[in-house]
From TrEMBL:
The keyword Membrane applies. This is PepSY domain-containing protein. InterPro entries: PepSY-ass_TM. Keywords: Membrane, Transmembrane, Transmembrane helix. The chain crosses the membrane at residues 25-48, 152-173, 201-223, 382-404, 424-452.
Amino acid sequence: MAHQSTNHAQRSANRRYLAVWRWHFYAGLFSAPFLILLAATGLAMILFANTIGRDNERTHVTPQAVVQPLSLQAEAARSALKSDTASVAQYIAPRSEDMVAVFRVNNGDKAFMVSVDPYTAQAVAVNPRNQNAYHLMDDIHGDMLLGTFGDFLIEAAASLTILLMVSGIYLWWRKSGSLKKMLLPEIGSGRNAWRSLHGAIGGWISLILLLFCLSGLAWAGIWGGKAVQAWSQFPAGKWGIAPNPESDVVTHGRLLNDGKTKEVPWVLELTPMPQSGSTLGENGVAADQPLTLETLDRYAREIGFKGRYQLNLPKGETGVWTLTQDSMSYDANSPFIDRTVHIDQYSGKILADIRYDDYNWFGKFMAVSIALHMGTLGWWSIAFNVVFCLSVIAVCISGLVMWWKRRPQGAGLAAPADKNDLPFWWGMALPLLVLAAAFPAAIMVILFFWLLDTLIVARIPALQKWFH
C-alpha cells in the first residue's frame, strides 16, 4: 500500500509538472520574440548612447581657453535654422570640455537639436529632434512603431514574462533538486544540453529580468499610466500649489517631455508644474541680476549643478525656468543626484527644488532601476547590460531550440502533454492567476487566447491538431 501511495504521489507530481510546463510553454511562445526584440534594441540604444549620444551631444570639439557667452551660442543655434520664427527652448550643457553644447530650437511645430562649439559659438550640426539612430531604437523598444497597440503588446509580453519566470523557476527546481544544480548544472548533450543552458541562464538572470520588467511596465500605458503612476506622483502641494490643482495646470510630463522622449523623472510626470507670477519662492537669483541664459547657467553652477545638465526656458506667461539633472537623461552616473529646480521667470525665486531624497519609495525604486535598466551608472553598468541582453537572447533562443528538437516532425505547436489529461492544480494556478490579474495586459491576453481556443480552435480539427 505504501508503495502504491508513493507511486500515486509521484504520478500526481509529474502531472502537475506537465501542467506548469504547458503554462510555461505558451507564455514563452508569446513572450520570446518580444524579449529578443527588447534585448536587441536595448543593446543598440546602449551602443548609440555611448557613441553618438541621445541628442548627438558626443560630437567632439577642440578645447580652447575661452568659452563664448551662452547668448552667442544660443543665437548661433537659432540662426542655424535660417528662420525668423525659430526660438531657443532648451540648453544642454556639454558633457565634457571637448564636446559640443546642444540647443533645442523650435520652429513652428518642428523641433531641432543644434550642436554648437562652445569655444567658437559656431553651429556644428543641425538634426531633427528625436530622429537619430538612438531614438529609432528607443521607439521600437517602446511600441515597435505601432503606437498604442504596440505599447500594449510590449506590456503584455513583459507581464507574461513575470509568469514565465515563476513557472520556469518551479520547473527548473523540480528538475535540479537543489540551488547549486540550478545555477551550476551538469551540461549533457543534445536536448539536455540546451535544457541545462536554458535553465541555468534563466536562473541567473531571473531577478534582474523581473526588475527590468517592473521598471519597464511602470512606463507602459495600462499598468504604469493608469495604475502605478497615479498613486506614486510627487505631491504638487510641496511648493504651495493646491493638492488638487485645476485641470488646466499642465504636468511635468506634458510640458517637458517631447513626444516619446522621457526627460522628466518618472515620479514627476503627472505632477503639475508650478507657475511664475506669484509671491511664492525664496533664495533664488539675486534681484539685481537680469534673468538670462548666462545668469541662470551661473546660478545653476552656484547651487550645485555640475557637468551636463539641462536648462529649459519658460513657456508662456506663467512658464518657469527649469534646471534638471538625472541619470535617466544621461546627465550623470548616479540616480541619487536627481534634481529638478523651477525658478520664477519674473522674480528669479526658486519655486521648487526637488531631489532624489524627496521622492516616495516607488519613485526612488524607479530612479535606481531605470538607471540600471538604461546602463547609465558607469562603465560597469554598460558591461552588465551587454551581458544581460545577450543572456536574454540566449535564454529565448535556447527555449525555441528545445521546442523544435522535442517537436515531432510534421507536428504543429506540439505543446507539452495534453490539456485534457492534466489536473487543475490550484497550488500553482492561483499564484499565476493573481500575478496575471495584477498586470491587466497579461490577463487580457490570457482571456483572448482562452476564448480563441474555446470558440474557434477547439471546434476545428485541423486547428486543434496544430495548436494542441
